[in-house]
Amino acid sequence: MHLEGSCHCGSVRFSVESTEPVPFMRCYCSICRKTAGTGGYAINLGADHRTFRILQGKRHLKVYRAVIDGRESTGQRHFCGRCGTALWLYDETWPDLIHPHAGAIDTPLPIPPQSVHGLLDSKAPWVQVEGKPGDARFAHYPDESLAEWHRRHGL
What we know:
mainly beta, Metal Binding Protein, Guanine Nucleotide Exchange Factor, Chain A, five-stranded antiparallel sheet, four-stranded mixed sheet, about 10% helix
Protein backbone atom coordinates (compact mmCIF):
# COMPACT_ATOMS: atom_id res chain seq x y z
CA MET A 1 0.00 0.00 0.00
CA HIS A 2 1.33 3.43 -0.91
CA LEU A 3 1.50 5.75 2.11
CA GLU A 4 1.93 9.52 2.23
CA GLY A 5 2.83 11.25 5.47
CA SER A 6 3.66 14.64 6.89
CA CYS A 7 4.30 16.59 10.03
CA HIS A 8 1.73 18.83 11.70
CA CYS A 9 3.10 22.12 10.35
CA GLY A 10 3.50 20.75 6.80
CA SER A 11 7.24 21.36 6.59
CA VAL A 12 8.11 17.66 6.09
CA ARG A 13 6.38 15.29 3.66
CA PHE A 14 7.33 11.70 2.82
CA SER A 15 6.08 8.61 0.98
CA VAL A 16 6.72 4.88 1.29
CA GLU A 17 5.32 1.50 0.27
CA SER A 18 4.02 -0.63 3.12
CA THR A 19 3.08 -4.27 3.37
CA GLU A 20 2.20 -3.73 7.06
CA PRO A 21 -0.15 -0.69 6.96
CA VAL A 22 -2.76 -1.79 9.52
CA PRO A 23 -2.26 0.25 12.72
CA PHE A 24 -2.78 -2.58 15.20
CA MET A 25 0.19 -2.65 17.61
CA ARG A 26 0.19 -0.17 20.44
CA CYS A 27 3.61 0.30 22.04
CA TYR A 28 3.61 1.51 25.64
CA CYS A 29 7.40 1.67 26.08
CA SER A 30 8.69 4.86 27.65
CA ILE A 31 10.52 5.89 24.46
CA CYS A 32 7.47 5.65 22.19
CA ARG A 33 5.16 7.01 24.89
CA LYS A 34 7.30 10.09 25.50
CA THR A 35 8.45 10.85 21.95
CA ALA A 36 5.34 10.03 19.93
CA GLY A 37 2.65 8.78 22.24
CA THR A 38 -0.96 9.69 22.38
CA GLY A 39 -3.07 7.98 24.98
CA GLY A 40 0.15 6.66 26.50
CA TYR A 41 1.22 4.59 23.49
CA ALA A 42 2.44 4.97 19.90
CA ILE A 43 1.59 2.98 16.78
CA ASN A 44 4.33 2.18 14.26
CA LEU A 45 3.72 0.70 10.83
CA GLY A 46 6.06 -1.50 8.82
CA ALA A 47 7.32 -0.29 5.44
CA ASP A 48 9.99 -0.94 2.81
CA HIS A 49 12.94 1.41 3.35
CA ARG A 50 14.01 0.99 -0.29
CA THR A 51 10.80 2.80 -1.37
CA PHE A 52 11.03 5.57 1.20
CA ARG A 53 11.24 9.13 -0.18
CA ILE A 54 11.45 12.47 1.55
CA LEU A 55 9.28 14.66 -0.65
CA GLN A 56 9.78 17.94 1.19
CA GLY A 57 11.58 19.45 4.15
CA LYS A 58 14.72 17.38 4.62
CA ARG A 59 16.39 20.40 6.22
CA HIS A 60 13.76 20.43 8.98
CA LEU A 61 14.40 16.82 10.05
CA LYS A 62 15.98 16.03 13.39
CA VAL A 63 16.99 12.65 14.81
CA TYR A 64 16.75 11.40 18.36
CA ARG A 65 18.60 8.29 19.53
CA ALA A 66 17.38 7.01 22.88
CA VAL A 67 19.78 5.81 25.53
CA ILE A 68 18.89 2.29 26.64
CA ASP A 69 20.76 0.67 29.53
CA GLY A 70 23.46 3.33 29.28
CA ARG A 71 24.05 2.84 25.53
CA GLU A 72 22.86 4.89 22.60
CA SER A 73 20.25 3.02 20.57
CA THR A 74 20.84 2.28 16.89
CA GLY A 75 17.21 3.33 16.32
CA GLN A 76 16.94 6.75 14.69
CA ARG A 77 13.69 8.47 15.62
CA HIS A 78 13.05 11.16 13.03
CA PHE A 79 10.91 14.17 13.87
CA CYS A 80 10.18 17.63 12.51
CA GLY A 81 12.47 20.23 14.06
CA ARG A 82 9.82 22.93 13.57
CA CYS A 83 6.70 21.37 15.11
CA GLY A 84 8.07 18.27 16.87
CA THR A 85 5.91 15.69 15.07
CA ALA A 86 7.28 12.16 15.39
CA LEU A 87 7.55 10.87 11.81
CA TRP A 88 9.36 7.53 11.53
CA LEU A 89 11.88 5.17 13.09
CA TYR A 90 14.78 3.72 11.12
CA ASP A 91 17.36 1.31 12.49
CA GLU A 92 20.35 0.31 10.34
CA THR A 93 20.30 -3.11 12.07
CA TRP A 94 17.33 -3.88 9.76
CA PRO A 95 18.24 -1.84 6.64
CA ASP A 96 15.24 -2.94 4.54
CA LEU A 97 12.69 -1.71 7.10
CA ILE A 98 11.38 1.68 8.15
CA HIS A 99 8.61 2.31 10.67
CA PRO A 100 6.46 5.36 10.03
CA HIS A 101 4.30 6.52 12.93
CA ALA A 102 0.65 5.93 12.12
CA GLY A 103 -0.15 9.40 13.47
CA ALA A 104 2.00 11.00 10.76
CA ILE A 105 0.28 9.16 7.89
CA ASP A 106 -2.16 11.17 5.77
CA THR A 107 -3.32 8.24 3.63
CA PRO A 108 -6.47 6.59 5.03
CA LEU A 109 -5.32 3.45 6.86
CA PRO A 110 -7.23 0.16 7.19
CA ILE A 111 -9.11 -0.38 10.44
CA PRO A 112 -7.45 -3.17 12.44
CA PRO A 113 -9.54 -6.23 13.29
CA GLN A 114 -7.90 -6.25 16.72
CA SER A 115 -5.15 -4.49 18.65
CA VAL A 116 -2.01 -5.85 20.25
CA HIS A 117 -0.73 -4.06 23.33
CA GLY A 118 3.03 -4.39 23.87
CA LEU A 119 5.60 -3.39 26.46
CA LEU A 120 2.97 -2.96 29.13
CA ASP A 121 5.71 -3.30 31.73
CA SER A 122 6.70 0.26 30.70
CA LYS A 123 3.15 1.66 30.78
CA ALA A 124 2.65 4.90 32.70
CA PRO A 125 0.50 4.39 35.82
CA TRP A 126 -2.18 6.80 34.56
CA VAL A 127 -2.69 4.90 31.28
CA GLN A 128 -5.73 2.64 31.02
CA VAL A 129 -5.25 -0.08 28.43
CA GLU A 130 -8.31 0.06 26.23
CA GLY A 131 -9.32 -2.19 23.40
CA LYS A 132 -11.54 -5.10 22.51
CA PRO A 133 -12.01 -8.23 24.61
CA GLY A 134 -9.45 -10.75 23.42
CA ASP A 135 -6.84 -8.18 22.38
CA ALA A 136 -3.39 -9.67 22.94
CA ARG A 137 -1.42 -8.02 25.74
CA PHE A 138 2.28 -8.46 26.48
CA ALA A 139 4.42 -7.27 29.36
CA HIS A 140 7.36 -6.94 26.97
CA TYR A 141 7.64 -7.55 23.22
CA PRO A 142 4.77 -9.31 21.41
CA ASP A 143 5.24 -12.88 20.20
CA GLU A 144 5.06 -11.95 16.51
CA SER A 145 6.37 -9.19 14.27
CA LEU A 146 4.32 -6.67 12.30
CA ALA A 147 4.84 -8.78 9.16
CA GLU A 148 3.86 -12.04 10.89
CA TRP A 149 0.68 -10.46 12.29
CA HIS A 150 -0.34 -9.17 8.84
CA ARG A 151 0.32 -12.60 7.26
CA ARG A 152 -1.70 -14.38 9.96
CA HIS A 153 -4.63 -12.06 9.31
CA GLY A 154 -4.34 -12.39 5.51
CA LEU A 155 -3.62 -8.68 5.12
